[in-house]
């Protein structure tokens, strides 16, 4: 029965855009690979990387000549590189970092199927490329995991004791805890961040949405995940940095807030200093900071951000109807497995007695995160 639960959790975790938002093409002028939607840029490289599990993943490396850190970015579960590309360019500029991002197996033009173990192999291949091909040192790398991307991020961080830092953006405690408020970890759970985060030895920045109801919305679903996911992870971190609780934000729009860039820049500036040079108030260990106030968008002067927002809204209008229909069909096929999981849960875990009915599980079947694709409709 645990295998059924694990399989259902995995199916709930991954929603690769279909069709992919880009194709791989060879630029006729340079002979280099690029994403079909975007022209060749001198500071951007597109690569195919083999993984230890036999798949090939697509990756993008964005250079910044002023950078002293490299961000290894693991995106959310309902986006691919084509949808994230413009954000990556902006982050590279505003944060003054090199940025390396990749599509999970089964996403975009990466081969294979998405599952927990494949994502671990995917991020390992990305890290290996940074070290071996670009000469990046472990202590220069900042791992960045958004939502489901927090799983491979935390897992890799436990293996790299000299990392510069990690950033967890709308992170989850575990896959099963997205669906149920269980109090202990089962062997069949996926992305057990709650058990792994205490093993991370570098500074950790938590970025999470905070509202009056202390919840975040998940994609098309009416189901919510408590903001306590982010707060609990913060509590368990060994080397805590001042967290960013974005009041009024949603699960997939946090990067639109001015404080997002400001706080991230401040964090990177701090961790780039040697430990003895870091300002002690920045590494917080005693209590939560109150939610930081933010507006609903970037400052008007950020033209590139305005362009990205307009592009996001226009793209949403074209895709929302088909995406919703496809996801509803996929969720309908999982109904039998969900019913089995609900019976198993009642028989082995009394902590779930408080759940009034199985409608919440039915709602939880949808995306763990919709970066910017479905709310405009």
UniProtKB/TrEMBL annotation:
Protein name: Serine aminopeptidase S33 domain-containing protein
Domain of life, per lineage: Eukaryota
SUPFAM superfamilies, sorted: alpha/beta-Hydrolases
Residue ranges, annotated region (Disordered): 273-335, 349-377
Classification via Pfam families: Hydrolase_4
InterPro entries (UniProt xref): AB_hydrolase_fold (IPR029058), Hydrolase_4 (IPR022742)
Occurrences of domain Serine aminopeptidase S33 (ranges): 70-175
Ranges of biased composition (kind: Basic and acidic residues): 286-332
Comp. bias intervals (Polar residues): 273-285
